[in-house]
Specification:
Layout (H helix, E strand, L loop, with lengths): L5 E2 L1 H14 L4 H16 L9 H11 L9 E6 L2 E5 L5 H19 L1 E9 L6 H4 L8 E6 L20 E5 L7 E5 L6 H9 L9 E2 L5 E2 L2 H7 L8 H16 L22 E8 L7 H16 L15 H13 L1 E2 L2 H14 L7
Parallel strand pairs: 3-4
Antiparallel strand pairs: 1-11, 2-3, 4-10, 5-6, 5-10, 6-7, 8-9
Helix pairs in contact: 1-2, 6-7
């Protein structure tokens, strides 16, 4: 089996920065977006990594995304805020919103921030993990293009609507959950299509709601199966309520794929929380209790053929450590697309 080419994180990040700047994005904002996308690659989440830069650039060129947004608070309270993203890149908007959320939580112990007029923000863990630096628990959600039908239906109403929670620990890596409420994120199906691979049966559906292993069929059907059937549907609906219904963003069938053309303003909604665990327990005690919980998880009896169990975020943590040292194993078709795009836009940084 041919190994994926290795790409170092720093040139990849600089490549993304220069692409975004050529699209009119301010340098500091370009660094924020590039850092978030490359961090996803380092964690092995290529579906939400730097390849997305090509799509972001296309949206800016078509007018659907504002390269220089005025991200601002439009409603403010001691423990909450509503942020208007001014149709900017989702990473710029979400990063600022989570900064506001964390700052408020320092004063109130628990804070929440909603966002309107944003766009695709990459991996949700990028924002929940921001709270870890302040020894807080972070929570991040967003709505997305309608693909999940309600149980028994075959029309998409909810997006893949991810949920991410990050929790600090004393000595171990932090616990980081980042899951789509669909069985898999749409971008994982896009990645399989790009690489010419079939998808596992159950990842996607055809127009009639039958499972398919063809990524193109899954992407054009307009529907994806929810995580754990009716449970995933219920979670997707809750994310839609928190991120979009409650904030004033576009929601439900108004987010169907036909409304995601590059020239369209998306009005994606996000919702963030930051919780200071010291409001319940002294921080050192909380962290030690987290270590005890991790110890309980690690000490379970293993099923036949299983060498170890993982805590949420552990696999990504280990990949990041390895990829920083050895380079990121980049999907070949995605890398070729990125390099071709760089040539077309005039970015000459060599990625391999």
């Amino acid at each position: 089996m041919t190994q994926n080419p290795r790409v170092q994180a720093e040139p990849l990040k600089q490549f993304c920065i220069e692409v975004l700047q050529k699209c009119g994005v301010r340098e500091n904002d370009a660094r924020t977006v590039a850092g978030i996308q490359v961090e996803a690659d380092l964690r092995g989440v290529h579906s939400h990594g730097s390849i997305a830069i090509t799509g972001y650039a296309a949206r800016i060129k078509a007018g659907g995304t504002n390269p220089r947004p005025n991200v601002r608070i439009i409603k403010d309270a001691p423990a909450s805020a509503l942020v208007d993203g001014d149709d900017g890149l989702g990473q710029i908007v979400a990063y600022r919103a989570m900064e506001i959320c964390i700052a408020k939580s320092k004063q109130t112990s628990l804070a929440s921030v909603g966002v309107i007029n944003s766009s695709h923000f990459g991996a949700a863990a990028s924002y929940s993990m921001m709270a870890l630096k302040e020894n807080m628990v972070g929570f991040a959600t967003t709505n997305a293009a309608a693909v999940i039908p309600p149980t028994g239906g075959k029309t998409g109403v909810f997006g893949t609507n991810p949920i991410s929670v990050a929790v600090p620990t004393a000595r171990s890596f932090p616990v980081v959950l980042d899951i789509a409420t669909s069985l898999v994120a749409t971008q994982k199906i896009v990645q399989a299509y790009r690489e010419g691979q079939k998808i596992p049966l159950g990842w996607g559906m055809d127009k009639e709601g039958n499972y398919t292993d063809d990524p193109r069929t899954a992407l054009t059907s307009g529907i994806q199966p929810p995580l754990a059937t009716y449970k995933g549907y219920g979670l997707a609906m809750l994310v839609e309520i928190f991120s979009a219904v409650m904030t004033g963003a576009r929601f439900g069938r108004a987010t169907e794929g036909k409304n995601w053309r590059p020239e369209n303003k998306l009005n994606v909604g996000h919702f963030f929380m930051a919780i200071n665990p010291a409001m319940f327990l002294p921080l050192p005690e909380f962290k030690e209790r987290m270590e005890q919980l991790i110890g309980d998880v690690k000490s379970v009896q293993l099923m036949n053929g299983i060498e170890r169990v993982y805590v949420p975020g552990e696999i990504e943590y280990e990949k990041r450590e390895k990829y920083l040292k050895d380079g990121i194993p980049y999907p070949p078709a995605a890398l070729a697309q990125l390099e071709k795009f760089g040539e077309e836009i005039g970015v000459n940084i060599k990625l391999r």
